[in-house]
């Protein structure tokens, strides 16, 4: 009888989560007393305490969610704003030996807003807007033109269907890193969001995964549409405090060779072209390797070391169609904290890359590395520091130059400094 | 249809086939490192008797398992602690109806070096030691030596449980945070001043360490985690349930496997792995929670 009364009392209190929140300590005392009086066994007390906590938490969650319409509960939004100071200095050495120096300073702003909706179980819709023009490799707007209003573009919009625990299908204008992994921006500028479809297979039981997809570069009213197919099998291995992620990357381009260059790229590029008309000279059925080794030096998540995390990373690419100037590579190291989210967290990165003229398509690599051209080499130093939660200051320095100067052509050398303040929400 | 599209089409079909082949009758279990050996053994025995079923068990910690359940990336989350309020909130928001089933009991053991004469302590004394309020063995009837603390890291469910139930405060900043149970046993074995906490499965046959008897308060009876009756009756005050969380009531292959875990055969395996079978209170609880 005493036990029935005790349990009844507890359930009456459970019905009022406000009371339970206020009486959490008193509940523990009550339960302890009931055990001492042999009204409850120790395990019954344990069950009662656990269930009380769980039910209060569920009621609080339901109350919070119930206050919002169901369609709002299914949507999450996020975004960020970046304000940048950029200083570029370039020396162009002509074949005659004369050197022309050019300098440029710019203040730039970038704003991004994204949403994620889960309309039904197993489906997700992601969409994002960003500042910028139709340049796929930049979301920046330069502060200029007498405070003119700046354009906002559709940055990405895609749907994801998780067929089961292993396979996801994505389609639309996709955030590249969701479809295709790359530890660096040797081949893919961070702002490029390709268009098409992709499939991701992840089998954690054997540490293996495969990304594959089909990206459409352009639609031509007459003639075949240029496109890229890719397949990226990889493994992710955890060994103690180390995590290794590595992949083989295969790309097959369609209808690139012979395609007029201007169909895809505005202005001059660095890939080899046939003379009349100026069209791509080679296929870009490239293959390569990517690897990233992370080492956690932090023995406990609550105790900071001087350097908590070190990552070694690299990319390699080769194009079998041309017989020369057909490879590229990048290797780098980053150290500090794994992420810069909390105040005081920092991360530094040092990397070196070379990308030969026809190793890869010249309209896709990092656009800040000697203008995003192939036939380039150089160093990059990056430092980021979180001054508050989700607010970071960053410094990025590029020292780049032309890799191989053709006879009669100019050599370019550039120093580029970017100072950023990023606020995420 | 060009060459690339043909290859893409074939690859897509192959991926769908591989993905579905893995998904069919595949049970994915993720989470607690305390539970991983036990559940792997249970699943091996179960798969020997049910050759059409495949069970994959991975670790990563209780938090990893619960997160995977919330993200619908696993069927069962192993957890050596209860779900936190924040996790319940996330599960509710994600439409996950988290159901708990208790598959075994653990007598969380407090160990000292084999040459330390202290063989019993109250919960309050243990809590004071691990919070740093008591720093010398002489304060609890032992030799005049400074106490060395060995515990787990903050991502461990055992770390959380011991802190919440025994220490009831923050751990001492001087506590050595070890990777796992086996490391704590080894450290205490080699340190005459050491004290640590480990799952009972790691000390049942261990040499060179004392497994302390613990009382719930001054004047109460001291009980040992090595005494099955003390743990089953609840007399041992640091007994904890070892949990599995599911999304909703279990069905199909998941239901069959959990029924196996709770069966006499499954509970015998629990004992062989060094843990304790579930007591009557949790048998009744499981029946009410998941109908098994």
Q: How is this structure best described in words?
A:
- The complex is a heterodimer of chains A (425) and B (292).
- Chain A folds into two domains: 2-66; 80-107 and 198-424, Porin.
- By secondary structure, chain A is of the alpha+beta class.
- In chain A, helix 3 (24-36) runs antiparallel to helix 4 (42-66).
- In chain A, a hairpin with a 5-residue loop joins strand 2 (99-117) and strand 3.
- The two termini of chain A are 55 Å apart.
- Chain A is elongated and about 100 Å long.
- A 16-stranded antiparallel β-barrel of chain A has the order 1-2-3-5-6-7-8-9-10-13-14-15-16-17-18-19.
- Chain A has helices at 2-14, 17-22, 24-36, 42-66, 70-73, 176-179; strands spanning 75-93, 99-117, 123-131, 141-142, 152-162, 167-173, 195-203, 208-216, 227-239, 242-254, 273-274, 279-280, 287-296, 309-318, 327-336, 346-355, 376-388, 391-402, 411-424.
- Chain B is an alpha/beta fold and 292 residues long.
- Chain B has two domains: 3-104 and 249-290, Periplasmic binding protein-like II (D-Maltodextrin-Binding Protein, domain 2), CATH 3.40.190; 109-232, D-Maltodextrin-Binding Protein, domain 2.
- Chain B has eleven helices and twelve strands.
- In chain B, strand 7, helix 6 (157-167) and strand 8 (176-178) form a beta-alpha-beta unit.
- The model of chain B has no long low-confidence stretch (mean pLDDT 88).
- At the A-B interface, helix 4, strand 7, strand 8 and strand 9 of A face helix 1, helix 4 and helix 11 of B.
């Amino acid at each position: 009888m005493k036990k029935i009364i005790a349990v009844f009392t507890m359930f009456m209190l459970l019905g009022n989560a406000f009371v339970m929140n206020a009486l959490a300590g008193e509940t523990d005392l009550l339960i302890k007393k009931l055990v001492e009086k042999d009204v409850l066994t120790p395990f019954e007390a344990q069950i009662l305490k656990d269930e009380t906590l769980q039910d209060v938490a569920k009621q609080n969650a339901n109350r919070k969610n119930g206050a919002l319409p169901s369609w709002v509960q299914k949507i999450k939004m996020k975004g960020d704003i970046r304000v940048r100071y950029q200083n570029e200095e370039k020396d162009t050495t002509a074949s005659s030996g004369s050197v022309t120096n050019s300098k440029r300073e710019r203040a730039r702003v970038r704003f991004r807003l994204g949403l994620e909706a889960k309309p039904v179980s197993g489906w997700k819709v992601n969409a994002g807007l960003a500042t910028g023009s139709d340049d796929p490799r930049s979301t920046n707007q330069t502060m200029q033109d007498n405070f003119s209003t700046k354009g906002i573009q559709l940055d990405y919009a895609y749907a994801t269907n998780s067929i089961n625990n292993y396979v996801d299908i994505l389609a639309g204008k996709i955030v590249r890193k969701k479809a295709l992994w790359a530890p660096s921006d040797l081949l893919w500028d961070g702002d490029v969001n390709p268009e098409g479809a992709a499939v991701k297979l992840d089998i954690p039981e054997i540490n293996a995964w495969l990304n594959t997809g089909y990206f459409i570069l352009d639609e031509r009213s007459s003639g075949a549409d240029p496109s890229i197919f890719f397949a990226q099998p990889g493994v992710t291995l955890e060994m103690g405090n180390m995590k290794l992620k590595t992949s083989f990357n295969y790309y097959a381009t369609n209808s690139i060779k012979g395609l007029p260059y201007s169909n895809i790229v505005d202005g001059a590029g660095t890939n080899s072209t046939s003379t009349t008309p100026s069209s791509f000279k080679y296929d870009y059925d490239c293959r390569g390797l990517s690897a990233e080794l992370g080492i956690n030096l932090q023995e406990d998540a609550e105790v900071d070391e001087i350097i908590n995390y070190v990552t070694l990373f690299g990319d390699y690419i080769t194009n079998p169609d041309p017989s020369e100037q057909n490879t590229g590579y990048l290797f780098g190291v980053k150290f500090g904290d794994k992420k810069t989210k909390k105040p005081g967290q920092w991360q530094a990165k040092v990397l070196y890359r070379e990308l030969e003229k026809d190793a890869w398509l010249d309209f896709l690599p990092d656009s800040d590395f000697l203008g995003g051209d192939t036939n380039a080499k150089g160093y990059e130093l990056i430092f980021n520091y979180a001054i508050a939660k989700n607010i970071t200051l960053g410094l990025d320095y590029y020292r780049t130059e032309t890799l191989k100067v053709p006879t009669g052509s100019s050599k370019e050398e550039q120093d580029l400094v970017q100072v950023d303040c990023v606020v995420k929400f | 249809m060009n060459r690339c599209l043909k290859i893409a089409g074939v690859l897509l079909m192959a991926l769908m086939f591989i993905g579905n082949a893995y998904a069919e009758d595949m049970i994915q279990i993720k989470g607690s490192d305390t539970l991983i050996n036990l559940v792997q053994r249970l699943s091996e025995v179960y798969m020997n008797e049910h050759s059409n079923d495949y069970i994959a068990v991975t670790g990563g910690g209780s938090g990893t398992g619960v997160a995977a359940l919330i993200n619908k990336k696993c069927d069962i989350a192993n957890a050596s602690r209860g779900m936190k309020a924040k996790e319940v909130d996330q599960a509710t928001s994600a439409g996950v109806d988290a159901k708990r089933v208790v598959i075994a009991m653990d007598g969380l053991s407090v160990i000292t070096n084999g040459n330390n004469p202290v063989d019993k302590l109250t919960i309050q004394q243990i809590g004071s030691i691990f919070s740093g309020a008591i720093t010398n063995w002489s304060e609890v009837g032992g030799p005049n030596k400074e106490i060395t603390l060995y515990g787990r890291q903050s991502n461990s469910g055992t770390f959380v449980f011991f802190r919440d139930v025994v220490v009831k405060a923050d751990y001492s900043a001087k506590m050595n945070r070890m990777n796992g149970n086996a490391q704590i046993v080894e450290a205490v074995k080699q340190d005459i001043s050491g004290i640590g906490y480990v799952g009972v499965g790691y000390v049942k046959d261990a040499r060179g360490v004392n497994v302390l008897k613990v009382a719930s308060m001054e004047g109460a009876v001291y009980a040992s985690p090595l005494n099955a009756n003390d743990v089953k009756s609840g007399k041992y005050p640091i007994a904890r349930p070892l949990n599995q969380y599911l999304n909703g009531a279990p069905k199909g292959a998941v239901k069959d496997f959990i029924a196996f875990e709770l069966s006499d055969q499954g509970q015998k395996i629990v004992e062989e792995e060094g843990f304790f079978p579930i007591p009557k209170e949790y048998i009744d609880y499981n029946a009410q929670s998941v109908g098994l």
